[in-house]
Design a protein that fits this description.
single chain; mainly alpha; globular; cytokine activity; signal; cytokine; IFN-lambda_sf
Length: about 80
Amino acid sequence: SLDHILDQPLHTLHHIHSKLQACVPARPTAGPRPRGRLHHWLHRLQEAPKKESRDCLEASVMFNLFRLLTRDLKCVASGDQCV
């Protein structure tokens, strides 16, 4: 269930990663690889467990989730059309 996933930050991020992977077109066998923010983010997400401890990754995930939540709450409170 989604509640179980949200209780664990790294599992939440992995769940988001798998959902985003479904949105990214398959890598072409030849030619340049498309570069964009999503591809860059997915690559960094795959490399992070090799470079950082689990505790550090969880802290980073929680910090960024709270940062996004705070930004969204400020946007809603101000009545702006947020994008």
